[in-house]
Automatic annotation (TrEMBL):
InterPro entries: MetI-like (IPR000515), MetI-like_sf (IPR035906)
Record SUPFAM superfamilies: MetI-like (SSF161098)
Family membership noted in the UniProt record: Belongs to the binding-protein-dependent transport system permease family.
Key words of the record: Cell membrane, Membrane, Transmembrane, Transmembrane helix, Transport
Transmembrane spans: 37-59, 97-122, 134-154, 166-187, 208-233, 269-288
Residues covered by region (Disordered): 1-26
Superkingdom of origin organism: Bacteria
Protein name: Carbohydrate ABC transporter permease
Domain ABC transmembrane type-1 intervals: 98-288
Amino acid sequence: MSTETLVRPVDTKGLPTAVPPRKRGVETTPGAKIRLVIAHICIYLVALIFMAPLIYAFFSALKPNSEMFSMPPTLIGSEVRWSNFVDVFAYGPFATYIANSFIVAVLGTLVTIIVSTTAGYAFGRLRWKGRDAVFVLFLATLMVPAEVLVIPMFQVMQWFDWVNTYQALVLPFAFGAFGTFLMRQFFRGIPYELEEAARIDGAGPIRTFLKIILPLSKSAVAVLTVFTFLSFWNSYLWPLIVTVDYDTLGTLPVGLASFAGLTGTRWDLQMAAAIISMIPTTILVIVLQKHLVKGIAMAGLGGR
């Protein structure tokens, strides 16, 4: 052995101290650098491909309406009209459309989260007779297209006298099976020992759900929040059918269609309105992005 391996560092009091572990070196071979550069180039190219339609839509919103379909196509028009984003609100009740979409999306998301988390807890953690059979029947509703249910749901709304109301826009699609399935799979991945420890301490099913299970499921709830908010925000067919007074209860997708009239289509304003409608959903995804990957990855790990 060499002297270097036998000598240990000594502190000011003469006592030996622990030798700090050596840091593992990062691979810096030429081949690794080339692979890293190629990976970054591929990522940037894919991102550019996905961003290209959005970039073109943004610059199209700044063009005059007469140059929207000019040949050859150009990215920037003869003049940049930032006023298009202001004219959108003067063309129609666009502020009302935004407010209605916010109300419907927020209320629909809240109801969906409450229903999906409680139903997912009942299917995933509680033991009761016929649980799996009921869950299979409940899950089978995912195979039914939403277009098939439009007429029966509209008749139900008529029976309740809910046509042209907020509850008609929110409740019919707030009890879907997707959110319940997502939360059930996530709940089944939580160790049962935590729940048993809570029951030993005297906690019942409701308290265990609120104090133990739900706080551990923030990532799955974030994923469900994003998916549900986007679903309600972008819904077009059902609000178009169940709404009568579009100027009062119209949502953004219905409002975007109003820019196409009998006298022509204001493509410039429609593009500007579409860009504005993407801002809230983009902010929501950015705020919750750190939970999305974790929640999606862990939601499918339950196997009990």
